[in-house]
Structure formats: structure tokens, C-alpha cells
Amino acid sequence: MDILTDYSNYLSARAYSQGHLHRIRVFLKYCIENNIPYTTQITEKDITNFYISKNYQISTRNCFITAGRNFFGLFLGLPSEKNAWSKMKLMKPEQKIVDFFKEDELNQFINIKYNSKRLSLLKRKVILFMFFYLGIRKAELISLHRNQISLINNSIKIHGKGNKWRFAYLTNELKNLLMNYFKEEPIEINNAFNISLGQINNLFIKISKIFNKRIHPHLFRYSFSHFVMSKGIGIQNLQRLLGHSSVEMSLHYCNPSNFEVEEAYQKALSK
Fold first, then answer.
1. 137 neighbors 242 (Cβ within 8 angstroms)
2. C-alpha–C-alpha distance, residues 83 and 71, integer Å
3. 30-84: per-residue pLDDT in tens?
4. Domain-by-domain residue ranges, the chain?
5. What is the pTM of this model?
6. Exposed site from 7, 69, 97, 242, fewest CB < 10 Å?
7. Are residues 145 and 169 in contact, defined by beta-carbon separation less than 8 angstroms?
8. How far is CA 229 from CA 80, 138, 218, in A?
């Protein structure tokens, strides 16, 4: 659809998340398949039926609400009274302990059997290392360019949510991987790693099938938070690395698991 191309350009020009584009594409496809005019006649009931058909969790529904308000309200210019998405209330998800994995488990995701000419083992390793050791978001990785990476200063300048910039820092191993990758693929075409959103999604779908559990880029972001906190980095430094506007948000990313709480309790009482 030409309208989606225009919307993608609209998001890029305003540094909005391209995740909005993906969600709107899914919703418009649903509308077309169910003969729902998607410009002015969408109702709250249509949106509710869309949720039910996809069995979305609360957090995902909230993402669709935000995308719907942006696309239909800001981009298409529908007034609030005609935009059903504006009438949908954001829901408060249940508080839960987030899942994460440890550093020594990273290689099991890298070494899967994955036949792809466009996604070599080296590129796959670089991508997964970026997610784990930088806590970078998927959209941030796709929008990253090589001139934002300084191998001399061991740092990366990341363009994050809300048009905010932050710095991330390279481990020696990640720096060496980047040097080798840039030698293997010296020309940047569309981003630093010449990778598409679809290729990243397919990689994580493959990993999830192999390990029979949902593995996604944000799981790596949670794991990064636990990893650096275990190294004693401190919550305010973590906030800077994650690009959060508040310490409270960063605290959510490093909530201890039940195992960690029990381990700390046993250790404290055994002294």
C-alpha cells in the first residue's frame, strides 16, 4: 500500500518508532480481510474483535492503541470523535517478574542451525551480541548506521525513543566482532548491518521454535539489565544505558527472579 510507504516516511521524519508501521500493517490487513472500511468507519467493536481474533496480551494491545492513535489521528488527521482508537483506553498490565537469561546461555542461541545466505554466522553473532551487551532495542538496531559506531572510542551513539540520543559501550569481544564483520561486509547499504526487520524477526522465530519458548529482542534487553547490574554498575548508570527517562522504569528491567531472591536470602542467613 502506498499509504504505508507514506506513513513510514512520516514516522522517519519525526523519529517515531517504526513499530507503529508494523502494527498498522497488521490491523489494515485484518480490516481488508473482514471487509471493514479502515478510513472513517472503524468502531470500538471492530478493534475489540481484532484483539480477540489475535489473542493479544494487554501490553501488545496498548502498543496497537498507541499506533492507532498515531496513524489515524496524527497521520490521517481524523478528529478524536471519529477515531475509534482515541476512545480505546490503555490498560494496565499485571505486574510480573520478567524473564531473562544469563551470559553463559548466549552461545546456545548463536550456534543454532540456521541456513541463510543473508545472515551468516558472524552477522548473527554480532546481532545477538549487540542485543545482549548493549541492551539495544530492535528499532534502534535497524536505524543504526556505521558512522554512529566508533571503534576508536569503543562507543556507539544510539538514536532512541522520543528522539533522544544515548551512548553505549563496546566490550573487547564485541569490538573485535564488529571489526571482523565490517571486513566481511565493507559496504553499508541500508543500515550498519544491512539487515531488515523481517530478517531479525525470522531469526528469533527460528530460535523460539528450537528452544520451544518465546525468545525475542526485548528478552535480551532484560537480560542485559540483569547482567550489568550483577557486575555492580548501579541503577542510575543502567538508566543511562537503557535510555530511560526514570529510574523507576529501569528498576522494572532488573527485578530479581524468585531464584535470585531465594539465593540472596540463603546467602544472607548462612553468614
1. no
2. 10
3. 998 998 887 667 899 999 999 989 888 888 899 999 999 999 999 998 888 888 9
4. 2-87, 103-262
5. 0.67
6. 97
7. no
8. 43, 21, 17
* Edge-to-edge order in the sheet of strand 165-169: 149-150, 155-159, 165-169
C-alpha cell at 227: 547482567
Q: Do domains 2-87 and 103-262 have the same CATH topology?
A: no
| CA–CA dist 8, 5 (Å, integer) | 5
Which grid coordinates are listed for 253?
Answer: 528491567
| pLDDT tens track for 80-115 | 888 899 989 888 766 555 688 999 999 999 988 888
Determine the CATH number of domain 2-87: 1.10.150
- Cα separation values, 258 from 22, 92, 99, 249, 261, Å: 35, 23, 11, 20, 5
C-alpha cell at 209: 521454535
Q: What letter represents residue 270's amino acid?
A: S
CATH code of the region 103-262: 1.10.443.10
